[in-house]
Design a protein that fits this description.
Protein name: Copine-8
Shape: elongated
Radius of gyration: 28 Å
Helix content: 10-25%
GO cellular component, one term: plasma membrane
Domain VWFA: 323-524
Largest sheet: 7 strands, mixed
Strand content: 25-35%
GO molecular function: calcium-dependent phospholipid binding; metal ion binding
CATH class of the largest domain: Alpha Beta
Oligomer: single chain
Number of helices: 13
CATH architecture of the largest domain: 3-Layer(aba) Sandwich
Number of domains: 3
GO biological process, one term: cellular response to calcium ion
Structural class: alpha+beta
């Protein structure tokens, strides 16, 4: 998400919207090949899904999985919303993915009929799956791939249509509100239950759903709630692109009645509330049959407000500092550092797993820290001279000033510590988390954000205290990255990650998700290419930091400081005496 772009993804001035500068063979390097060429948005629709419900139609959801490079394990990437009572869903929620021309990105789309509120997919009926690559979608005609759904022997499972659209870099969002008047009455016993469906047009003339309003019950003159949508989702930044709006009458069985439709564009809508933004709702079938047909009602735009979304880099430009702290596991389970089997083995020819994790993450984060001074801590060792066990000691041996200069300084202090301390135990995380939390608690104005990297070989001993520390820290400007090295089972770490179930302690839930865990073994490159391993590791562990950072700023209502003006040297005016 960030960091790597600094060195490799630069564009030439004035090329912001066009193609990035092409690398010649001479300046190609391994890291720049893992910079996404662009981001693409995947839209998913299905036709003729299996019907698994007895009294109504299926309630489908789509779950996307990706496959890690050099690893056969599938990881969940995201889920669409559930659409009730339909075998032909057009999912509104999109998947936004980095697109790498030079990497094979394997994708798997699984479809389920949702039967309850449980997030556990095994509790729902499987409707089939489709395998493809991201390149296959992008490379199809019109970037639109249509494929059969498979996975249930002897059954026709329907088809899936996946469309990829390259994203324009548009950060504006729009807050809009609509009302309608004198809509057609569709219900036998009452008035209609209207809702609006917005579609943006694609380059090939087809339409992609981008928003649905709520249903307003039993009225022909509904006022819908204001809703916020990104300009990117509404028209991909093309202000003159057609936006089609359909009006439906909601029915419980999913067979919503079509009332009519109208078209507009972002440019028209941006005029705001005016006579230009009152639209006749037209039902083409009725218009064709009835000579006296005028319309099926009108829809009026009540308000239109543009908001610019702030990004992680807006805060960085405004001067927010990212403070990076390292904590290293010195417990005996790592093995004797003098033995090649040890995870702390000091091989003169290559970095050990701890060293690789420190470098991979640190070299990127240090770009966001102006003084490049990083506190480096250790835990789980006996310290000289008296052999006391510490879970929060300075790697450089100076508890008053545990700062090391740059990642090179951290590495040097790490190697020096290995020679002086005795690996011991247990594996306690809470002291180092609380150490960083004390600093984070003293600056809550948005000027600083703290990232703690914990590198560990595994099984945690103080789970209850660690959960308590994380729940407390979730209110502070900090994030925690945990890299697990070695062959241990890391089930407890997955629990701390909080991606699936928000972490809690004594009935209190974390205010936000601040922990990202990855097992280092997923990144070991079979060909021995450590640069690539480190680039992948960095990309994954740092991917969530900008969103965690933004979630803290949003909750606290902290806006980015204005970027300082570019420096211009003072002009000396020569005064001439008359």
């Amino acid at each position: 998400m960030f960091g790597l772009e600094k060195s490799a993804g630069r564009q030439e001035p004035g090329r912001s919207g066009g193609l990035p500068k092409m690398a010649s063979v001479g300046d190609f390097n391994v890291l720049s090949s893992s910079i996404p060429a662009t981001k693409v948005e995947l839209s998913v629709s299905c036709r003729n899904l299996l019907d698994r419900d007895t009294f109504s139609k299926s309630d489908p959801i789509c779950v996307l999985y990706t496959q890690a490079i050099g690893n056969k394990e599938w990881r969940e990437f995201g889920r669409t919303e559930v659409i009730d009572n339909t075998l032909n869903p057009d999912f509104v929620r999109k998947f936004i993915m980095d697109y790498f021309f030079e990497e094979r990105e394997n994708l798997r789309f699984d479809f389920y009929d949702v039967d309850s509120k449980s997030p556990n997919l095994s509790k729902h009926d499987f409707l089939g799956q489709m395998f493809c690559t991201l390149g296959e979608i992008v490379g199809s005609q019109g970037s639109r791939l249509e494929k059969s759904i498979v996975g249930i022997p002897g059954k026709k499972c329907g088809t899936v249509i996946v469309t990829a659209e390259e994203l324009g870099c548009c950060r504006d969002s729009v807050l809009m509100q609509f009302c309608a008047n004198k809509l057609d009455k569709k219900d036998f016993f009452g008035k209609s239950d209207p809702f609006l469906v917005f579609h943006r047009s694609n380059e090939d003339g087809s339409f992609t759903i981008c928003h649905k309003t709520e249903v307003v019950k039993n009225t022909l003159n509904p006022v819908w709630q204001a809703f916020k949508i990104s300009v990117r989702a509404l028209c991909n930044g093309d202000y003159d692109r057609t936006i089609k709006v359909e009006v439906y009458d909601w029915d419980r069985d999913g067979s919503h009645d079509f009332i009519g439709e109208f078209t507009t564009s972002y440019r028209e809508l941006s005029r705001g509330q005016s006579q230009f933004n009152v639209y006749e709702v037209i039902n083409p079938k009725k218009k064709g049959k009835k000579k006296k047909y005028v319309n099926s009602g009108t829809v009026t735009l009540l308000s239109f407000l543009i908001e610019t979304e702030v990004s992680f880099l807006d805060y960085i430009k405004g001067g927010t500092q990212i403070n990076f702290t390292v904590a290293i596991d010195f417990t005996a389970s790592n093995g004797n550092p003098s033995q090649p089997t040890s995870l702390h083995y000091m091989n003169p020819y290559q970095l050990n797993a701890y060293g690789m994790a420190l470098r991979a993450v640190g070299e990127i984060i240090q770009d966001y820290d102006s003084d490049k001074m990083f506190p480096a801590l250790g835990f789980g060792a006996r310290l000289p001279p008296d052999g006391r066990v510490s879970h929060e000691f300075a790697l450089n041996g100076n508890p008053q000033n545990p700062y090391c200069h740059g990642i090179d300084g951290v590495m040097e202090a790490y190697y020096r510590s290995l020679k002086s301390v005795q690996l011991y135990g247990p594996t306690n995380f809470a002291p180092v988390i609380n150490h960083v939390a004390r600093y984070a608690a003293s600056v809550k104005d948005g000027s600083q954000y703290f990232v703690l990297l914990i590198v560990t070989d595994g099984v945690i001993s103080d789970m209850a205290q660690t959960k308590e520390s994380i729940v407390n820290a979730s209110k502070l400007p900090m994030s925690i990255i945990i890299v697990g090295v070695g062959p241990a089972e890391f089930d407890a770490m997955e629990e701390l990650d909080g991606d699936v179930v928000r972490i809690s302690s004594r009935g209190r839930f974390a205010e936000r998700d601040i922990v990202q865990f990855v097992p280092f073994r997923d990144y070991i490159d079979r060909s021995g290419n450590h640069v690539l391993s480190m680039a992948r590791l960095a990309k994954d562990v740092l991917a969530e930091i900008p969103e965690q950072f933004l979630s803290y700023m949003r909750v606290r209502g902290i806006k980015p400081s204005p970027a300082p003006p570019p420096y211009t040297p003072p002009i000396h005016v020569l005064q001439t005496q008359i």
